Amino acid sequence: MLASFAQCGSAMTAQHVRRVADLKFDKGIHRGSSPFGYRADAASARAHPRPPIPHDREFPAVVEIFQRALTGSYSCRELASWLNRSGFKTRNRKKSVPKEISGQDGKPRKFTDDRVQRMLTNPFYAGLVVRRRRSTVQFRTGQIIEVVPKPGFRWVLEAAEMAKPPGAVPDDPLLVIGDPEGIRGPS
Length: 187
Description:
The chain is mainly alpha-helical. The chain has helices at 2-27, 58-71, 76-85, 99-102, 113-120, 150-162, 173-177, and strands at residues 38-39, 53-54, 128-133, 136-141.
């Protein structure tokens, strides 16, 4: 009998979480932590969520990364080196050695070419919010200050795809499911 109460409670929680996620998506509010270059709005509350706002120091660096990427003259490795030389670190605080063994908390890591490629292909920076449900992915224009307009983002996506080795499986949902928001433009 207790198991059926627990199952009912779990189903109700899942339904509530799904409803809140749908509401945020419909309003164009990003879910999850703020990507590099943005920070949470201090006025945001659980009852009245607000979109992330540009970080004073990081946002100009993200704009510079996209501007450099759009020239086609920089590799992801060169862009990562530029970020590291400029004193930026990722927000990833995961450690390869547990705190119990090392005695230290996780520290932000340096940027890598992989991290920069993920940044350049993240639809958030084009002002889009994403909803993922099992095998479906949906995009919507969000209440986000975009770093790069959709045509520039399309160009970066295509350049990133061309840089992959032949036969590589695309990890970008836009490359897998198509382009419902018209990000890629006419073929």
